[in-house]
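lol forgot to send this yesterday, sorry. struct tokens for the thing we talked abt
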């Protein structure tokens, strides 16, 4: 199997790559910085391709490279993401919203559309969108005091969930399964390594969805504890 992981040069993406390699999957790390992608791939024994998810031309170029090297794609993990923290909704600027949405929402659409012809060439491809429990409107409305009320990040991941569901519906009559993973709050560069939960622990649910068998679900939003409310 051939897997491409966006933002795979560090954090949860890197650990997803490592876990898939442990399961004898051929892994390609997509990274905006080609040098960092190559370095991460060398450490893991993977391959890398330059891929800036916010640039449709970069996504198309990466797809051309995968087509030349492998001819198909069995697993696409839309993992690359950004967050801007410590902003109350009333303080969130249009520039912040655009920056976050460019990577977290538009990027997965650009990459998925570029890679979809290759996913269709696989016998049973798996498409995984890496979201967050913060995307859940149900959990936000539950009023948990510990729920981070971050307008740009949370709403971008809610939008990403809607994007994933749209692909799941569109591909329902194919062998491609589309699912959404919540890795949880993990110790990564994005979170300032503030969590006791490791990136490898977060990556486990992504790998689970990436390796679903033919009887597995499609159109789900889950963490390691099971389905989330939408």
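and heres what i got for the seq, position by position
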């Amino acid at each position: 199997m051939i897997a491409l992981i966006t933002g795979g040069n560090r954090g949860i993406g890197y650990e997803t790559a490592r876990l898939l390699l442990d399961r004898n999957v051929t892994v390609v790390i997509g990274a905006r910085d080609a040098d960092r992608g190559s370095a991460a791939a060398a450490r893991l024994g993977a391959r890398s391709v330059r891929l800036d998810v916010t640039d449709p031309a970069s996504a198309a170029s990466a797809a051309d490279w995968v087509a030349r090297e492998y001819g198909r794609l069995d697993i696409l993990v839309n993992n690359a993401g950004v967050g801007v923290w410590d902003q109350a909704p009333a303080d969130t600027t249009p520039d912040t919203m655009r920056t976050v949405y460019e990577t977290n929402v538009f990027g997965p659409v650009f990459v998925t559309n570029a890679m979809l012809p290759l996913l269709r060439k696989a016998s049973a491809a798996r498409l995984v969108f890496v979201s967050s429990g913060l995307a859940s409107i149900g959990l936000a409305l539950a009023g948990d005091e510990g729920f981070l009320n971050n307008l740009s990040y949370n709403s971008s991941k809610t939008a990403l969930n809607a994007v994933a569901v749209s692909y799941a519906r569109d591909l329902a009559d194919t062998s491609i399964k589309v699912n959404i993973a919540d890795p949880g709050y993990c110790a990564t560069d994005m979170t300032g390594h503030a969590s006791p939960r490791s990136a490898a622990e977060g990556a486990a649910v992504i790998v689970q969805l990436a390796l679903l068998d033919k009887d597995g679900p499609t159109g789900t939003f889950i963490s390691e504890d099971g389905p989330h409310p939408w």
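The chain has a mean pLDDT of 93. anyway ping me if u want another try
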